[in-house]
Amino acid sequence: MGLKLDIVNPVLWEIGHVGWFHEYWTLRFSHGQSPLIARADDLWNSSTVAHDTRWNLDLPDRSGTFAYLANVLELQCEHLARCDFPNHARYFYQLAIRHEDMHVEALAYMRETLAYPPPRGLGERLAPAAGALTGDTDVPGGTWRLGATKAEGFIFDNEKWAHPVELKPFRIARAAVTNREFAAFVEAGGYRIRDLWSDAGWAWRERQRAERPIYWQPKSDQRWRWRRYDRTEDLQLDAPVVFVSWYEADAWCRWAKRRLPTEAEWEAAAIGEPSDGGRRLAEVKRVWPWGEAEPTRDHANFDFTYDAPLDVAACSAGDSAFGCRQMLGNVWEWTASDFTPFPGFAADPYQDYSQPWFGRRKVLRGGCWATSARIARPGYRNFFPPDRNDIFSGFRTCAL
Ligand SMILES: [Fe+2]
Predict the structure, then answer these.
(1) Phi then psi for 335, rounded to 5 degrees?
(2) Distinct helix (H) and strand (E) counts, the chain
(3) Rounded Cα–Cα distance for residues 235 and 216 (Å)
(4) Which residues, at least 6 apart from 361, have a Cβ–Cβ distance to it below 8 Å?
(5) Residues 96, 111: Cα–Cα separation, whole Å
(6) Ligand 1 center to 117 CA (angstroms)
(7) Residue 395 C-alpha to ligand 1 middle, in angstroms?
(8) In what helix (H) or strand (E) does residue 353 lie, and over which residues does it extend?
């Protein structure tokens, strides 16, 4: 069951919930079947079963839970094998698969929160050293079309619809902020300098008594170490800092005289192209930062290729047109933007995906090593409260 915390679910509950979501939207909603377990909605519907009560339910045990998931999958496969598979059901299968992807990632950071061993069989443990990548790149101004168009494949409701955003020229870092760069802020006393923090950020820092990123241990013998899962490891200094809250990213920026990009800036740097001899943003949007080729491990570290962030100089084949590296994969990147609806937003059938969270969260972009390539599209908007430091979150910055 794991610890009872606001930021995690009981592990057993979360696994059952993934199966329930599949069953609810595919077998029941799309195909009209009746529930496989009569009380399933009272156990696993995240919209109606309050977080605090999830530890007190009469859940099936581990083998019963996995049997339920296997049963759902078998019935889904039977439907998918039929020639009369209804077209409207396609969306809900895609939704349920992506929902599972999100919970797979959540289970990975829950293992970190709970100090469990790393997930077995996922990711190569030995990430090749690639070193640092410093400096900014210029992105010209222009009109950026933020949001999805009807020509795109599967999208979430919060990406609807494309709308123009005017961007001024800006300079953005080619790489995310590294552990080495973040350590300099910690060593300069950044966590004790009130002026570097917003009011809400300082209140968070005081509440947490934060002195450094959550899993870092006090520096000793000239070395920074951190807890990873159930063990202690040396910090990889050229890898991006991860498990930092938006407040910490914001404070680092004030210290370094930098700022976070808006989500429109982030996206333009990731999938925009220059036109007019570099004076304007072109109208095109690339499919991926590097173009149209399907992602490989040379482009991006996601789908658990490695079970850790790579150094920021890795994955050079994945550079954007402006030379930004690792816009996808490795670590999620906090943006300056609040999570708000785009013009024309209307909730999709899974109504609680975006709507309840507008206005109270910050947008993250780009996915991390534990994100599936299905989720980590450049247009995908992740969103978390600014105090969350248990997720795979880092950041990259712009010049002031
Ligand atoms: Fe869920």
Answers:
(1) -115, 170
(2) 8, 14
(3) 8
(4) 338, 339, 383, 384, 385, 386
(5) 22
(6) 23
(7) 25
(8) none
- Mapping DSSP onto H, E and C, the string for 199-235 reads HHHHHHHHHHCCCCCCCECCCECCECEEEECCEEEEC
3 and 114 Cβ atoms separated by less than 8 Å: yes
**126 pLDDT more than 80:** no
C-beta separation of 330 from 370 below 8 A = no
Confidence of residue 101 (pLDDT cuts 50, 70, 90): very high
pLDDT one-digit tens code per residue, 237-272: 999 999 999 999 999 999 999 999 999 999 999 999
- Across 213-359, the runs of DSSP E, i.e. the strands, are 225-228, 231-234, 258-259, 274-275, 280-281, 332-338
Rounded to whole angstroms, the Cα distance separating 167 from 268 reads: 9
Q: Measured in angstroms, how far is the CA atom of residue 165 from the centroid of ligand 1?
A: 31
CB atoms within 10 A of CB 53: 9
Q: Residue 309 C-alpha to ligand 1 middle, in angstroms?
A: 25
- Per the structure block, which two tokens stand in for 16? 């059952």
Helix 11-22 to helix 62-81 angle, to the nearest 10 degrees?
A: 20
Listed in sequence order, the DSSP H helices in 158-285 are 179-187, 199-208, 246-256, 263-271
Q: How far is the CA of 46 from the centre of ligand 1 (A)?
A: 6
pLDDT on residue 125:
66
376 CA distance to ligand 1 middle (Å)? 17
CA of 103 to the centre of ligand 1 (A): 7
CA of 99 to the centre of ligand 1 (A): 6
At position 106, the amino acid (one-letter code) is A
| Ligand 1 centroid to residue 232 C-alpha, Å | 31
CA distances 299 to 51, 286, 315, 354, Å, are 38, 14, 5, 29
